[in-house]
Amino acid sequence: MEYEYHWNIVFDKMPELLNAAFVTLHVSVLSMLVGIIIAVFLALGKMSDVKVFNYLSGTWIEIARNTPALFQIYMAYFGLGAFGIHLSPYFAVLSALIFINAGYLAETFRGGFLSIPKTQYSASKSLGMSKVQVYRYIILPQMFRKIHYPMTNQFVWAILMSSLGILVGMSELSGETQRLQSLSFRTLEFFMVAAVMYYIITKFILISADLIAKKMFKGDI
Amino acid sequence: MGFSLFTPLSWNDSSFILAGILNTVYISVVAIVIGTILGAIVGFIRAESNKYVNMLLGSVLDISRSVPLIIQLILFTTYIGAMGYPLDPFIAGSIVLSIYTMAFMSEVFRAGFESVPPSMITASRSLGMTYWQTVRYVRLPIGIRAVFPSWLGVALSVIKDSALVSVIGYMELLRTSEQLISRTQQPLEILIGVGIFYFIISYPLSLYGKRVERKMAL
Predict the structure, then answer these.
(1) Which of A208, B49, B113, B188 has the largest count of CB atoms under 10 Å?
(2) Range of the domain at A35
(3) What is the CATH classification number for the domain harbouring A186?
(4) Hey, is the C-beta of B63 within 8 angstroms of any chain A C-beta?
């Protein structure tokens, strides 16, 4: 059977699609930023000697890593309703992404931190550095070099997974595409354009993360 | 609070849920098996071919990893529908999920094949092994062993991503639970059950993967 493509309908809706792509970008950036902050605490908790912190952050990390993202989003959107918390689709997706990002990034941070030999810590102490200086000049720069790649991956993952907003009616790129295609039934064209947009966004992020890393680490990654 | 032990769920629903669980397991296994076989082949080709072929193959497979799975599923089903060959959701879902798995697996296996030191290959050739014997007895066993933890990681993520096949109408666990939720209006209880199911599949395997990784690092 022949299928006739009608692209002008899609191009007429381009401003809406671009707006939605911006929402996608902005929910992922926000989920990364908040996720990183929580992940630092989770990683510290997982490494601390206090049993309670250890247990709590361990539970968070394992739940985030071992259940589907869609499950987390359903949990935030439908499940929290049982407690009288009714989140809008935007906040449901955002909080689910924060939850998962924090879990994954905590493991990344912990791995990066543990990969730095303890002897470096003692060595810099013996050179007369204060605790802040040790972290600022010795530990964190090395750690960041090791974790920047997994962090970029996590960012890309957050962008791809924000597409699950389509299932709870959030108007990010996928959800908006779904809404617009239902007006004209040009499903194929709309989703093709959305796919291309996702591809461009992820490639843009990967390339710019690479450039930033090259600039920061002066070539040797 | 809305949490109560009284529920409109009846024992009849257990077979409904069980069918959802089986469907999730079924499609995950199909995708992992097909994806692994294809991924191993593509990974081998990528490890063997020169820089340009490798780059070309890599960038084609990269599309599958840079576009959300949900969009891929919708695009594929709409496309074959528009072409006049509508497929069963299970088959369409397996095809997309297998290709998606293959994209990740090919990277894993490429790393595995490249981790075998060239001197080892030269040594086995000098012992009179043919090219395919080298592949069969030296590169494959050593390469696969090196990447087993990453293979397990990809397999686990496929089990979790199989939840997305629900968008094209496949009755896997999460969609089953969604239908139960819309009937019973008890989202929390049902979702917690679903979460526990995924957790007890995924968590032991991820622990096992970590243990293997630690063993190999020593």
Answers:
(1) B113
(2) 10-216
(3) 1.10.3720.10
(4) yes
